[in-house]
Amino acid sequence: AALTEPPVEWATRHDDLVDIWSDRAHAYDALATAMSEADIKGWNAARAASDDAKLREEAWFKAINAEIAPTRITLDQLP
């Protein structure tokens, strides 16, 4: 997603989504590390980070879809 060039009017929102997806990827990496090290504190912190990214992503799609509703086009979070 970071390689995509959005239209200028979408740049900030696009950057927000790239940040969310990057945070999710980092959380998944931390989950894998915590699992391999049997690190329960690391696991719990990574789960919280993953949950936060998921909720931010859901809110992002909800807000975008509300904004573009007049076009009768929707973006699917999970196509």
| Cα radius of gyration in angstroms | 15 Å
- First and last CA, distance: 15 Å
Structural class: mainly alpha
H/E topology pattern? HH
SS strand fraction: under 5%
Return the average pLDDT rounded to an integer.
95
Q: Which regions have little confidence, pLDDT < 50, spanning 5+ residues?
A: none
Concise summary:
The protein is mostly helical and 79 residues long. The chain is built from 2 helices and no strands.
Give a structural overview.
- Helix 1 (11-37) runs antiparallel to helix 2.
- With 79 residues, the protein is mostly helical.
- It is built from two helices and no strands.
- Helices cover 71% and strands 0% of the residues.
- The model has no long low-confidence stretch (mean pLDDT 95).
SSE layout and pairing:
Layout: H1 11-37, H2 40-68
Keywords, separated by commas or semicolons:
mainly alpha, 79 residues, 0% strand
